[in-house]
Structure formats: structure tokens, C-alpha cells
Input
Amino acid sequence: MYQQVILDHAKRPHGQGLVDVAAGHLGGESHQVNPTCGDEITLRVDVDGDTVAGVSWEGQGCSISQASASVMTELVAGRPLAEVARLDAAFHDLMGSRGKGLEDEAALDDLGDASAFTGVSQYPARIKCALLGWAALKDSLARSGALG
Amino acid sequence: MTTTGTARPAGTPAALSATELAAVRADFPLLGRTVRGGRDLVYLDSAATSQKPNVVLEAEVEFYEQRNAAVHRGAHQLAEEATEAFEQARAAVAAFVGADPGEIVWTSGATAAINLVAYSLANATAGRGGAAAERFRLAPGDEIVVTEAEHHANLVPWQELCARTGAVLRWFGVDDEGRIDLSDLGSVITARTRVVAFGHVSNVTGAIAPVAEIVAAARQVGALTVLDACQSVPHLPVDLHATGVDFAAFSAHKMVGPTGVGALYGRRELLEAMPPVTTGGSMVEVVTMEATTYAPPPQRFEAGTQMVAQAVGMGVAAQWLEELGMDAVAAHEQHLATELVRISEIPGVRIVGPADAHDRIAVVSFVVDGVHAHDVGQVLDDRGIAVRVGHHCAQPLHRRFGVAATARASASVYTTTEEIAAFREALAGVRAFFGVD
Output
């Protein structure tokens, strides 16, 4: 479960520290908690038209939640909203795979470093940790008004 | 009731011998299984729920196979036998905690027991229970006292009672070792105090509360005392009459008994004066379309079909512990506590709670600097070591110590020194695993 890429991201997370939304862009913010362990994240999204210009966040939690938020930040920055929605769906599928990964190899490739979380899906108690940042992303996008 | 076969001869030394401990462990089928790819299970999560000995499992099966019938109704032989088993279990539980059978109300667990008291007071405040229950009525400005160390089950029901009655919640803080700070005793428990609710032993820190001091202060002002005894009853000799508390709550599943059953202890004269909470069948005397009179306690508080098989199992669990001897259990676990607190010798490991084994039980919560509790738990789990991670239903206490989550290792009568040593060894490798130094 603790792939090196996860340990590296947990140690040096990307996207930490909330960044102001650029002038003329849409912004949305979401606070998510995992009540079973007290992990939390506040995530801000900056949307330029139909593209996620950037994601920033602050929070605290276990290595899985921190690394997952970090990987996600890198993965979605600069991507069109429709692509982000596909990645979100693919990551949720991966987390529901009970350690088997995704049959759709292209989808797994698209997830990049996020595919390293396949092992997490074997541990039901930790799936929520991996999904915390993604839940905050989805909610902040909805709040930004960018989804129409 | 069948004997459980664990009675120790008179004159036996306090702590369990290696042979006795081996015999105890052989009684718990689950302890023999392996986890995570064939590793021996090291179960250090007994504060969450204990494992169950064969006699308890068999008692439930035997009840269903031989005696199952509705209790306290019906005149057939099975109904008689079921009722007898049910009431014998009540007597066994009562004897185990130093109470009279009529002072034990079956509940689904300690949470339900504490809520029962809180809601009965709310019903009294709403005028139910007549003149006898007037003493339980709360008014705005009355105060309910808890502690910062409480499990949510002994905090949230009192917050709710305050919200419904206008009473004000006050609390004792804890010191840096997590012990209840009584330095401001006289300003927290005052003439306005009506209820003092506190845990006998913290499920996070393992610290034993100064029961006598708190009860004396509460009595002096005529306040009711409610003891959350979940973490004391399975691990220490408890004599509720001797403590002088008015109410106590505990759960079977933490004391080698089944889930789904627990008990509320209440002093007889109080239970007799309290209005019911859950109403319906089996708790009434006369029912007309206009009004209902209620049965005396404990039946007044036991509406509906009861969890009879589980209650029978709880009775056998109490008897099993009683026969082993709670002095022996406590002495064994005192040794385990001494072994557990040694984790503070590991660099980067910090205990949240008393640093030594004095006045505490073998429940030890801790943080590992630079590693989240979830990650600590996961690495231990990969070695077959089961600990609890999170806030252990005590968020205010964790906030007090500035941590979102801790890991917790907790022992029980069946835990061995070797298991604690295996835990310490695995814990010592955690920071290196995550590259923290």
C-alpha cells in the first residue's frame, strides 16, 4: 500500500498553501473532514473558463490523504473540466476495485501517479482517506459555479 | 447457572501464572486465528471491544437451543426457564459489580444506559413521574458537570439534556497527564450542580478517576452522580455500593460478553422515583385507553422484547470474570500496563495520558512524531497487531492535547507480555518506515 510515490508525496506535498484565485477566474472552496480520524482539508479551485487553472489546499491528515491530495493537485491542474470529471470517476472506480486496479488500462495510465493508490483500495478503512481531496475538489468545483 | 470452570483455589498468588494465562487464552477461539497473510493476531484493541470466551458463546447457543421463549409472560415451562435464566443473569451481573439485582436495568449498552438517565430527567422536567419525580426536575440555571476526558457517550447526552431544560453544562479540565483536574473542585461543583457525570477510567488515557473525591463533593451539594464504568468493570474490582454513585453504566461487549447488551445501575430509591423513557409492552401495570401506570423498576425501563440471549451471555461473562477473580485480573493487567508505558522509551513516541503505570489501566494512547495515527495503525496491522486509531470518541480530550488523532493499544485479561513486546518492537520501526527521524 505504501508505494514510494505515496511516501514521497506525503513527505513533500504539492499544492499546499491556499492561493488567491486569479482576477477574472471563477473560484470555489470546500472544507472536508473525515470524522473517523479527524483528517481535514480546505481546498480552493481556480477555474479559467472550462479549464482548472490551479488547485491549492491546506489540511492535515495521514500519509494517504496528504499524498492523494498532492497527486490530485498535480494531475488536474491545467486540465479541461470534462477531463477532470473523467479522472475523478476513474479514481473512484480504482478505489472501489478492492486492489484489482482498473481493467481499462488507458484510464489507469491517465491517472498517472494516482494509480499508485491501487493498494489502498484493499483497505476499506483507508479509501476515505484517499478520496478526501477528491471530494473537496468536486465540491469546490460545484461551488465555483464553473460547472454551469 | 452453569459454572464456568475458571475458579481459582484460595491462597493463589495475585497475578495469573503462565499456565493460568495459557488456559485463559485457550478459552478464546478468536485469539487462535491469523491475520494479514498468516500472521499471529496480536489483539490490542480490547478497550473498543473484548474477545469472548467459549462459555459466553456457548451460553447464547444453549439458551437458543434449550430455553428460548418470551420472558416475564406466558405460563409454559420454556417461558419459566427463559425468565429464570434472564433473572439469574441479572443477579450475576449485579453481584459482579456490588449491586442488588433490582438495581440493574438491561440496556443495549452503556450509551443507552446513560441516555436512559438523561431522558428520564428530561421527562421528569416535563412533569412526568408525578410528585416522586419532582426531585429530578431541572430548571434554567441548574448545572450539569462532566469532564473534558469523557467519551462522547457521557458528554453528548448531557449537552442534549441541557439544551432541552435550560441547564448549563460545566466541566473539569484535565492536567498534562490527562488526569481530571480537581484543583477548582469547589467552583465547578456548587449549590447549582444537579448532576455530576464522569468516567471511572478514561478510554483514551487509561487514567483512573478520583471517584471518592468527586462523589463526596457531589453528595455535599445533593447532586446525582453518574459513573461511566465501561473501562473499569472489565479490568478492576468494582463495588458500586461502596463507591456511593447513584448511577453507573457499562457494556457487556467490553467485559468478554456479547454485543447488544449492557446495564444501567441505579440506586433502588432513585429508579423507583424515575419516570420511564422507552414505553410500550412489558413495562406497564394497568393500561386503559386514557392512561397507563407503570411497573416498578427494573421492568419500568425495559420496554419491549429484551435481548435475552445476550443478557444470559453477559451474566456468564460476569461469572467467568468473577471466578477468575478481579484481583487477579487487575494484577495481571497492572503488569501489562507497566509493559505498555515502556513505549515512551522509543524515540519519537509520546504517550497521551499518565506516563507511568500508577493509577491507570492497560489502555495507552500515543502519538508518533511525524507519523499520523492512521499510518501507525496500518504499519502495525501489517504485522498482525490490532490497535485503534482516531479520536476514540473523545474529540474534546484530543483537542486539549492538540492532536487530531492518536493510536491506542489496550489490553485485557487474555493479553500477554510477549504480545506487548511484539507491539513495542513493531512500533519502534514505524518512524524509519516513513523516513522520519
